Amino acid sequence: MQDKEMLIHWLMDVGLISKKHFCLLCGEEMNLRRCEDRSDGLKWECKRQENGKRHKAEISIRKGSWVEKRRMTLEEILKLTYWWCQDLDQAQIKHELGLVEGTGVDWDSFCSEVCKITLLENGEKLGGVGKILQFDESKFGKRKYHLDHHVEGQWVFGGIEENSRKCFLVAVEKRDEATLLPIIQKWIAPGTIIVSDCWKAYCNLDNHGYEHRTVNHSVEFVNEDGDNTNKIEGHWRHAKCKLPKFGVRKHLFSTYLAEFIWRYTHRNEDLFQVFLKDVKQIYAPT
User: Quick one: 151 exposed, middle or buried, by C-beta within 10 A (0-12, 13-18, 19+)?
Assistant: First the structure.
């Protein structure tokens, strides 16, 4: 019981669950009480008598937080989150915690979704005047034939700044100028020096506020000015290496890419602390 209470107060102190709640019946601040009939061991309670009438109200200490509807214990949730941040295999996590089938998968999806929301809410344009950015497109997965049907791979368009870990990756269905130019304008600041191959969809970048340099991969890996696309090529290898062995369904590809970018961007940080900070920003307790 003491360990549970310490954990709850820590979650309150770091802002992941609310430090106070107010009664919906009388509007007064509720009291934190011990209880044996709840797995958390604590609950919010209000007992008052006004104008000859008595009322009793109680709610979970998880109310209004990121763990409100989770059936796992708080200790299990934090362990599961920590191990997910360490990139442990789902089967390992399930075995360590004795989770029922599907729980680990659901939590993995939740954590990946946090990465996706964080990327959408905090995304900023890359590059800028004088900065160099490499971009390219690559196909993830292979065409597989089985029982008279086939599965196409997924094209991904991406870019990465030289001398930083800032990057973007976007799943695309087409690689024409009409598809790629809006993505470039969304993610890359005007004035950026862009290095790419000679794909025809990039031919008009100089007309849209960018300085475009090309490397003709059919004859060279480094052009006469020393420009190359080595960093983005290495980025592709890293991203594909992290691709789950069972593959990724197309409708989940954007979430997978967001998690990869999140891990890559914060690679040299404490991912557990970064994740909790992102959770608090998205699911601020109410």
Answer: middle
Query: What does the pLDDT read at residue 167?
Result: 95
Q: CA 126, 128, 132, 133 torsion: positive or negative?
A: positive
Amino acid in position 196: S
What integer is the mean pLDDT of 140-158?
Answer: 67
Question: Are 170 and 179 in contact, with CB atoms under 8 Å apart?
Answer: no
The position carrying tokens 């946090």 is: 114
Q: What is the Cα–Cα distance from 51 to 265, expressed in whole angstroms?
A: 59
Structure tokens at 252: 């989940």
In degrees rounded to 5, what are phi and psi of residue 189? Answer: -70, 145
Residue 118 has pLDDT above 60, yes or no: yes
Ramachandran class of 178: left when φ > 0, alpha when ψ lies in -120 to 50, beta otherwise = alpha
Q: What is the dihedral of CA 275, 281, 283, 286, to 10 degrees?
A: 140
Where is pLDDT greater, at 137 or 152? 137
pTM score, whole prediction: 0.85
In angstroms, rounded to a whole number, what is the distance separating the alpha carbons of residues 154 and 133?
Answer: 23
Q: What is the pLDDT of residue 170?
A: 94
Say if CB 146 and CB 172 are below 8 A apart: no
Among 143, 125, 122, residue whose Cα is nearest residue 209: 125
Q: Which two tokens stand for residue 139?
A: 């196909």
Task: Give the pLDDT of residue 173.
Answer: 92
Tokens of 257: 């890419």
Positive or negative: CA dihedral 90, 87, 259, 180:
negative
Q: Which parts of 59-124 fold into alpha helices (H)? A: 74-85, 90-97, 103-122
Which helix (H) or strand (E) segment holds residue 214: the answer is strand 211-214
Under DSSP, the state recorded for 269 is S
pLDDT of residue 19: 94
Question: Quick one: CA torsion of 201, 205, 206, 211, rounded to 10 degrees?
Answer: -120
